[in-house]
Amino acid sequence: KQTCTSNWLCRPAITLNSQNGQSNPNVTVKNNLIWDIASGCIWARSPGSNQVIYSNTCYDYGKVSPDTNSSPNPEGISGGNATNVSNNIIYAPNGVNPFDSSYSGSNNLCGPGESCGTSSRVWSANTMLSTDKNTSNFMRIGSSSEASNSGYAIPSVARSYDGKVRPPYDIGAFGSSMTGGLQAPS
C-alpha cells in the first residue's frame, strides 16, 4: 500500500496477463488467501478460454482510493475475462465492490447489499473464526459459517490453502474440518 504513486499504479495481488495480446487459456486461480492490500485481489486482464477463479479468500482490499493515480482496479475481482468465478469469499469492510461490472459468478460470499453472483452468501460475524492475522484461526471458516457447505462442489479443489483435505462444498481458501461424510448443501 505504501508504494502506490503516480509513477507506479497499485496493482491487484494476482494479474492474469499476456504478452502481445495472446490468449491465456486453461488458467485456474484457486486457494489463495489475499488480505490488507491497496488494490483488488485478482485482475483477469487477458482473454482466454476456461479461465477459472475458485475458492479464494479476498479480504480487506481496495484500501487506496480508486483513481487513475493510485488504484485502477480496486474491486475484489475485475477484468471480465474469467469464465467461471465461484466459491470465493470477497469482502472489503470499507465497502469496495466485490466485482467490477463485467462479472456475476456463483456461490460466492460478499458483503451485505453487494452483488457477487447467483446463489451468493452474505458476510456476517460468523463468517470467519478470526480476522486477526495474529491468531491460528485467521481467515478460517467454522462449521457455523455461511461459507461452510454452501457452495457447489469443485472436484479440482480437494485441499485447502494450508494443504488439508477440505469439503468440496465450502467457500473460500480454507475449508471447514472434514468430520463426518460429504454431502451436498441443502
Mean pLDDT over all positions: 84
Report the β-strand fraction as a percent range. 15-25%
**Cross-sheet strand order for the largest sheet:** 1-4-7
Task: Compute the separation of the termini in Å.
Answer: 41 Å
How many individual helices?
Answer: 0
Silhouette: globular
Structure commentary:
It is a single chain. Helix content is about 0%, strand content about 15%. It is mainly beta. The chain has a 3-stranded parallel beta sheet, with no helix packed on it. A 3-stranded parallel beta sheet has the order 2-5-8, with no helix packed on it. The chain has a 3-stranded parallel beta sheet with strand order 3-6-9, with no helix packed on it.
Tags for this model:
186 residues, mainly beta, 3-stranded parallel sheet, 11 strands, globular
Quick structural gist:
This protein is mainly beta.
Lay out the secondary structure.
Elements: E1 14-16, E2 28-30, E3 33-35, E4 42-44, E5 52-54, E6 57-59, E7 77-78, E8 84-86, E9 89-91, E10 109-110, E11 121-122
Parallel strand pairs: 1-4, 2-5, 3-6, 4-7, 5-8, 6-9, 10-11
